[in-house]
Amino acid sequence: MDDIYLYLLAINVIGFLSMGIDKFKAKNKLWRTKEKTLFVIAMIGGSIGSIIGMYTFRHKTKHNTFVYGMPIILGIQIGIAVYLALRG
Questions:
Q1: Domain locations in the chain?
Q2: Is residue 46 within 8 Å of residue 10, measured between CB atoms?
Q3: Residues of the chain whose pLDDT is less than 50?
Q4: Nearest-angstrom CA–CA distance, 9 and 25
Q5: Which residues of 20-55 are buried (b: 16+ CB within 10 A; e: fewer)?
Q6: What is the pLDDT of residue 88?
């Protein structure tokens, strides 16, 4: 069980940092992180970190796919976690 918590901590840090790094790259006209990559990070467990990073760095906050998509991913993940917890 500790491995799951460690994984979730790590992937959420990665999600947070990926938003900050991509914002830095955008401001400095550097090679950007693909939007697909940002969503994959969220889908594999980094949705909380990605959402916090999105608003901390004010990155992708004008893109409806991110403003609505990230919370939807988080909601699905919470639903899965609740289901698994109740299932035993």
A1: 2-87
A2: no
A3: none
A4: 24
A5: ebbbeeeeeeeeeeeeeebbebbeebbbbbbbebbe
A6: 75
